[in-house]
Write a structure and sequence with these properties.
The complex is a heterotrimer of chains A (about 625), B (about 130) and C (about 350).
Chain A (H helix, E strand, L loop, with lengths): L3 E5 L9 E9 L5 E3 L4 E4 L5 H5 L7 H6 L6 H15 L6 H27 L6 H4 L4 H11 L13 H16 L21 H21 L1 H7 L34 H32 L13 E3 L29 E3 L15 E4 L5 E2 L13 E2 L24 E4 L8 H11 L3 H15 L17 H20 L15 H7 L9 H7 L9 E7 L2 E9 L6 E7 L1 H6 L10 H5 L4 E2 L6 H9 L4 H4 L17 H5 L1
Antiparallel strand pairs in A: 1-2, 2-3, 2-4, 3-14, 5-6, 7-10, 8-9, 11-12, 12-13
Helix pairs in contact in A: 3-4, 4-8, 4-10, 4-13, 4-14, 6-7, 6-8, 8-10, 9-10, 10-13, 11-12, 11-13, 12-13, 13-18
Chain B lengths: L1 H21 L5 E4 L8 H11 L5 E5 L6 E7 L5 E7 L5 E8 L10 H23 L1
Antiparallel strand pairs in B: 1-5, 2-3, 3-4, 4-5
Chain C lengths: L1 H4 L8 E3 L5 H10 L3 H14 L7 H8 L6 E6 L5 H8 L9 H8 L1 E5 L7 H13 L4 E5 L2 E2 L8 E2 L2 E2 H9 L4 E5 L1 H5 L1 H4 L7 E2 L1 H8 L5 E4 L6 H14 L11 H4 L10 H6 L9 H5 L67
Parallel strand pairs in C: 2-3, 2-4, 4-8, 8-10
Antiparallel strand pairs in C: 5-9, 6-7
Helix pairs in contact in C: 4-12, 5-12
Classes of the chains: A alpha+beta (about 625), B alpha+beta (about 130), C alpha/beta (about 350).
């Protein structure tokens, strides 16, 4: 039988550079079925960990932040936490509240933009939207988003939607310049929504752009800019303004004045209302139109979460212990699920994390090694570029991403892992809330607004989209505050912002962080481990600081998209992207829309995944060898 | 005093611009953001020297949440103090415009023609109501 | 710095107030944009950019052109932060913002993170967009000098080859971000992948085209969009020796900084969260690179003028300057918290 190659390169609407190569058995009518694991290849490297060697550990966050300008906050904070862990310094409660809000703000921003701007075009046919009936669309809007009033404070009416059509027509179609919307798979048989549904979602696509610009103001107040806001080892660089009025040459002051704090509050309120009024009902709208996508895109059912959003209220003595020391209070649990078994949330042990380069473009040992001891050498052995027929082979090395494994197994990380670990833990009020939401919206009957899907099918393309929305809702409420839900026995939660605000005159920085680093001989002899749960999942950094120079000896990151997008390991076990495509039926082999739907459901962030190298091939931790000696 | 010097300089320019306008010249604008040395004290002094007049006007944002531009005539007819706000209500830019009335507020001839066209159907609607 | 400006009293400009002609007003009507909001945003932008108000009609003409100039946006060794920044400046709603108009003003014909097309269809879109001539090629990220290294391959083609073919018919190349402008992070010591800036890549490929560097990690949204609009309105803007528009990169962060007085008179910040930091004291001793960094952060600021790193308590890292990752400071040390060498008394 002939095997058809399905190649998507570049995969667009992602962060970074990704190539997907899959094989399909043709059906004889232009379509076919993917019958074995695909190849996921990342095709760009920079070498950031290598660049970090020999540098000041206080600077590391700014380098790792540039791993990715989309998940910029989490990459910076993981580094900050790794250094704080290495030097045993705890941060003030205010720093944790602010960090929680910055990470949380990033989740809300990334997830909403992922849904509308990166993923929606796999489900929403913009060309079809142009033929929508504006009156019917207004009726749909009233039903689907009854509280969302973008039309000068009113519900959008027929004129509003007619104006949206006109805007698309005059802006794009009439001038024959489709711009970003050119050459999509418009008209593909796999698009199932009505023209009115398409127009409604297209409207929200456009409106979400303006919304996103407003909500990043949270990062601008706390971090001075976005992307790449400022952070600092030991706390936060921002601090309460001595002057509540506007900053000026005469009055001085900081961004945390009355106006700055009001901007944060406004951003949090905007996040919460957009998620409740638009994102949540829109995900359900799309899901109702594509329920069969709960049948595709499953991974092996192994899920990993490092845990995130520590609870500063648990701190007993400010700056002696830290919120990070209480994993039981993390909003997202720290733990592992094996083979879809949600009855047991197994404890996480960072010593069980390994990396493997059997199918990645690195030299050295192909054994599975802990990130703190793995040795790697940049060694491209792929086909020469700029020649015809550039093809990768799964028997060879084929990616710049290494294969991370936990206890030897490929793991899925990200929103689905967060939701499932919360479901499995079932101790915090938010865990119980997740169960209620899943019961209501995923499993619940259509009459009650649910999708009537079996719980087990959460491990799917559609389940990932649903989980991403659900965790966004949980986080948005956690930041701004949540009223009690009495019929579900869920208590009220004050919210990180109100709790921070009440404590705003407290400390923001632990000066010990800079003083201990100035005396490196007093530093503990240990590998620092820092972690966050990024919007795309488990993110860990390992750092070793030289106790003579105080500079970085070794730095290693194992990040979310690496877990999901990695290639086969030494035993030939495929990574989650590769596995998830098996069984996909393509209507047209030259327009692999179905493949994109599942790949995008992971929200690829490939710049993140491929920073992981140490091209000179030094052992990552070799205690008592001078750092200069290792650079040779 | 430093601020006296800055303010005198601006006022001299306003005077020259008024003179030009009075002789049938075109309106002109001073962007206060670009005036060197116009710090808080000098700014306050300039504002108090120019004082306030009878007329003010403002433009609201398209969603009507906040005003984006506000113009107020100073105590000197033909000298307008114009303030631009961003979405958060902060002052972004301030200008002094020397003109009979700031052009941004006046309807443009093209808009007047368009209004007439748009009003047409409404007149007909009324006619139908009366006829029925 | 602002004190010394006092002697330059003749710098205050009185300029003719702008008028829009009927064509532009009609086009705005077709675009569903309010003339008043449009004029107000242009006025604000011109003020931020220190442009004379008399330039407004030219800007307005560029912003309402019936055919949209084509922009091809290509990404190489980058982190997507520059695009995130640029997207932060976009808003369709209301039509009152200049950034909104930019999306209506230019046709972004290729941009991998936002475009609908993927794979073969995306490659086709790239080929057809770059087959025409005169488009603006926006580039972010550095490029590995060696085409055969495998450090950047997309669609089976190396970074150098993708750039060469995309540059062939471009009318202007805009390097957005410090990686594209100067090599940036990938080029930081020891430059593991042999990364080079767009300027150096152009030199090695023998490409002679107009180039504007819009440096920053990332650049301010309005600086990216403002540079493109300036070019569309009035051609090549005046550039500094590093090929950056003087409008945005003419002065140091320090010279416009609201904390500049405490640089001279104190109190300066000695540790994060100390009393001076709450008052908004100068961050020079904390390693601030504002005195040697040409950027608009302290004047335009970020996200609608809300804040900038110094206002939020962190020293300027100097991210618009070449090799800022490797700057050597006091005591011969690199580092963002190491004070500048020298005194910088002004």
């Amino acid at each position: 039988m002939t095997i058809a190659n399905i190649i998507i390169d570049p995969v667009t609407r992602i962060e970074g550079h990704l190539r997907i190569q899959a094989y399909a058995d043709p059906d004889g009518h232009g379509g076919g079925t993917i019958s074995k694991p695909a190849l996921s290849s990342s095709t760009m490297v920079r070498g950031i960990e290598r660049i970090l060697q020999g540098r000041d550990p206080r600077d590391a966050w700014s380098f790792t932040q540039r791993i990715c300008g989309v998940c910029t906050v989490v990459h910076g904070l993981t580094s900050v936490r790794a250094v704080e862990n290495a030097i045993n310094v705890k941060v003030p409660k205010n720093a944790d509240y602010i960090r929680n809000m910055m990470i949380g703000g990033q989740f809300v921003h990334d997830h909403v933009m992922h849904f509308y701007h990166l993923h929606a075009l796999d489900w929403v046919d913009i060309v079809s939207a142009l033929s929508a009936d504006p009156t019917a669309t207004a009726t749909l809007a009233k039903k689907n988003n009854p509280n969302y009033k973008p039309n000068n404070g009113l519900l959008p009416d027929a004129a509003y939607f007619q104006a949206q059509i006109n805007k698309l027509k005059t802006g794009l179609v009439n001038r024959g310049q489709l711009g970003l919307f050119a050459n999509g798979y418009w008209g593909h048989v796999a698009y199932k929504l009505t023209p009115e549904q398409n127009l409604l979602l297209t409207s929200h696509y456009l409106e979400a752009l303006g919304w996103a610009r407003e909500i990043v103001k949270l990062h601008t107040v706390f971090g001075g800019k976005d992307p790449h806001p400022s952070l600092v080892v030991g706390g936060m660089p921002c601090t309460l303004s001595a002057n509540t009025g506007a900053v000026s040459e005469d009055n001085g002051g900081t961004s945390l004045n009355t106006a700055g704090l009001a901007a944060v509050k406004a951003a949090l309120d905007r996040m919460k209302s957009f998620v409740d009024q638009v994102y949540l009902p829109d995900v359900l709208l799309v899901a109702r139109g594509y329920k069969n996508w709960a049948d595709f895109g499953a991974t092996a059912g192994n899920f990993l979460s490092y845990g995130e959003f520590p609870d500063p209220a648990l701190v007993r003595t400010e700056m002696v212990d830290g919120a990070i020391d209480y994993p039981a209070g993390y909003l997202f649990p720290q733990g592992v699920i094996w083979a879809n078994d949600l009855k047991r949330l197994m404890p996480f042990d960072q010593a069980k994390v390994t990396e493997n380069v059997a199918h990645a473009w690195y030299g050295g040992s192909t054994a599975a090694l802990h990130p703190s001891v793995s040795t790697t050498t940049l060694q491209y052995t792929g086909p020469q570029p700029d020649q015809p027929d550039y093809m990768l082979d799964e028997a060879d090395r084929y990616s710049w991403i290494k294969s991370p494994r936990y206890d030897g197994k490929p793991m899925e990380v990200g929103p689905l892992a967060h939701i499932l670990t919360m479901y499995a833990r079932n101790t915090l009020a938010t865990d119980r809330l997740v169960r209620k939401y899943v019961d209501t919206y995923w499993c619940g009957t259509a009459a009650n607004g649910g999708l009537a899907l079996p719980f087990a099918k959460l491990n799917s393309t559609l389940g990932r989209i649903f989980s991403r929305m659900l965790e966004t809702k949980i986080i948005a409420d956690q930041m701004a505050g949540r009223a009690a839900i009495s019929n579900w026995s869920i208590p009220a939660y004050a919210g990180w912002y109100p709790l921070f605000y009440a404590n705003r005159s407290g400390k923001y920085f632990n000066p010990k962080a800079f003083t201990v680093l100035a005396s490196p001989s007093t530093l503990p002899d240990k590998v620092g481990f820092g972690f966050t749960e990024a919007p795309r999942g488990a993110l860990g950094h390992w750092i070793k600081i030289n106790r003579t120079t105080g500079m970085i000896d070794h730095y290693q990151c194992v990040v979310a998209s690496q877990w999901n997008a990695g290639p086969r390991d030494g035993a030939g076990a495929p990574g989650p992207y590769e596995q998830s495509l098996v069984g996909h039926k393509l209507a047209a082999l030259d327009k692999p829309l179905e493949v994109l739907r599942t790949i995008h459901s992971f929200d690829p962030c490939i710049g993140c995944a491929v920073h992981v190298l140490d091209p000179e091939g030094q052992p990552l931790v070799t205690v008592d060898v001078s750092h200069l000696g290792r650079l040779v | 005093m430093r601020e006296e010097k800055v303010v005198r300089h601006v006022l001299l320019q306003v005077e020259a611009a008024l003179d030009q306008l009075g002789k049938g010249g075109s309106p002109s604008t001073i962007d206060l953001r670009q005036v060197p040395g116009l710090e808080a004290k000098a700014y306050q002094l300039l504002k108090s020297r120019l004082g306030s007049g009878e007329v003010s006007a403002s433009i609201a944002t398209s969603d009507g949440v906040a005003e984006t531009v506000r113009a107020a005539e100073t105590a000197f007819s033909g000298v307008w103090w114009i303030t631009h706000h961003n979405g958060a209500g902060d002052t972004v830019t301030e200008q002094i415009e020397i003109c009979p009335f700031p052009a941004i507020f006046a309807a443009h001839p093209e808009e007047i023609r368009d209004s007439a066209v748009r009003l047409g159907p409404l007149c007909n609607q009324n006619a139908e109501v009366e006829a029925s | 710095m602002q004190r010394s400006d006092l002697s330059r009293e003749d710098a205050t400009e009185v300029t003719p107030s702008p008028e829009l002609d009927a064509t532009i007003v009609r086009r705005l009507g077709d675009m569903g944009v309010s003339r008043r909001q449009f004029m107000a945003s242009l006025t604000r932008m011109a003020s931020l950019l220190a442009l004379p108000p008399s330039m407004l009609p030219q800007l307005a003409m560029a912003a309402t052109s019936p055919t949209k100039p084509s922009v091809v946006y290509m990404s190489f060794q980058e982190c997507t932060g520059c695009l995130e920044s640029m997207v932060n400046s976009f808003a369709f709603k209301g039509g009152g913002t200049i950034e909104n108009l930019l999306l209506n003003v230019v046709s972004i014909d290729y941009q991998e993170t936002l475009m609908a097309a993927a794979g073969a269809q995306a490659e086709h879109q790239l080929a057809s967009s770059t087959a025409k001539s005169g488009y603006v090629l926006v580039v972010d990220g550095s490029i590995p000098a060696s085409a055969n290294s495998g450090y950047f391959v997309s669609g089976g083609r190396s970074g150098a080859e993708r750039f060469r073919s995309a540059a062939a018919n471009a009318g202007l190349i805009v390097a957005v971000g410090t990686c594209a402008s100067f090599g940036g992070l990938p080029k930081a010591d020891p430059n593991p992948t042999g990364a080079v800036s767009i300027k150096d890549m152009m030199a090695s490929l023998g490409i002679a085209k107009p180039l504007i560097n819009v440096s920053g990690c990332p650049p301010i949204p309005e600086v990216i969009t403002g540079t493109i609009l300036l070019y569309l309105a009035s051609g090549m803007p005046a550039l500094d020796t590093l090929l950056r528009p003087k409008t945005f990169y003419g002065r140091t962060v320090h010279s416009h900084c609201y904390r500049e007085e405490s640089f001279e008179d104190g109190p300066r910040v000695k540790a994060f969260d100390d009393a001076a930091s709450r008052k908004g004291g100068c961050l020079f001793d904390m390693g601030c690179k504002g005195p040697v960094t040409k950027a608009a952060c302290s004047s335009i600021k970020w996200n609608q003028g809300l804040s900038f790193p110094i206002q939020s308590g962190h020293p300027c890292m100097g991210c618009t300057e070449p090799n800022f990752w490797d700057r050597v400071n006091k005591g011969g040390k690199k580092g963002f918290y190491v004070p500048l060498a020298g005194s910088y008394d002004d």
